[in-house]
Amino acid sequence: MIHTEGLTKQFTTKNKAVITAVEDLNLDVAEGEVFGFLGPNGAGKTTTVRMLTTLIAPTRGRATVNGFELGRQNQDIRRSVGILTETPGMYDRLSAEKNLTIYARLYGVADVQGQVSKYLRMLGLWERRYDEVGSFSKGMRQKLAIARALLHEPRVLFLDEPTSALDPEAAKLVRDFIEELKAEGRTIFLCTHNLDEADRLCTRIAIFKTRAITIDTPEKLRERLFGRQAVFHLKRLEPAWVDEVRRLPFVKDVQALDTRLLVRLTDPEEQNPAIVRKLVEAGADIQFVGELRHSLEDVYLQWINEDAGKRSS
Fold it and tell me: Are residues 160 and 259 in the same domain?
């Protein structure tokens, strides 16, 4: 659905200095995928979205969206994508219904009233359809902007910080709606600073800072950095048991912490039973076994810091 090769965007300042916002971006986003684009402020995430939705032209490189070539079939790309910007503009003095009607007509929607009604109801705005948008809360405006992005039933949806500054209830509604779109098989390109949100919603993630530092599933990113750690909670812990576990050939590392053993493994599902047997034979009382799961925040910060170290060296 989305393919880029060497996509680059440079800006020239008033002092004639050249600033590279996006450098040699190579991406492949599959149909039906929720693709997370994570990076710090100023990393080039919004610039990438603007290029892929034909709002600005790349300096070099090429891209296709829905099979349409960037720079040659821009009008076709615009018709086939929906976009939610971080600060979506609305006509504040017009009602929610009137706002969506205007945009539905601009998109050339066949059943304008039907589509407007569908998304106002779906996003919980039907009772406020005649109210001026200027009277809406931030969350309501964001939901209306999502409705606007979906009126023409786009195959690809670009969401730039969709839950930014929303209260928890509104943010949950938006996340639930993204889950529904995911279940429908829509392709979603999601820029977010909410790492928990990205962890729950995204099929794959790109950690990005001017260029793609790494791309993979959230679980694979964790494993590549930290491996997998099983946690054995014991009634008491004898030092000799640590050595017993360490001698098992598949164990990568063992740490003792109070009455817990943290064991680094490649395949806990297959290897945990052997560790349990070894501990029981040694006289340990095992209360329960779990897995230490690093947060996506840990993963993100580690990749960003490693990349910063590489660039400085």
Answer: no
